[in-house]
Design brief:
85 residues, mainly alpha, Recoverin, domain 1, 59% helix
């Protein structure tokens, strides 16, 4: 059931009309090209913090732009959103 958290995070991005790039730039406070766990923890959207280990698919303790884009383009995510009332 842990994967159930991912669609919630992605739905947040879509509900708020925030592009992946814009969200990534806001979260990457030190502008090193990755979102650290600490940066995710300080984010107003704490869901990225709770889903951090799911989104960080290469397990390098940071979220890259590619990982964030991949989670938003997941076909399972699209089918989940279609099911939402």
């Amino acid at each position: 059931m842990i994967l159930g958290l991912v669609p919630t995070y992605c739905s947040y991005c879509q509900k708020k009309d925030i592009s992946t790039e814009k969200m990534f730039k806001r979260l990457d406070k030190d502008k090193d090209g990755a979102i650290s766990r600490d940066e995710a923890k300080k984010a107003k959207n704490s869901l990225i913090y709770y889903d951090f280990y799911i989104i960080d698919t290469d397990k390098d303790m940071s979220i890259s732009m590619e990982e964030l884009k991949a989670i938003r383009n997941d076909p399972a995510e699209k089918s989940f959103i279609k099911q939402m009332p």
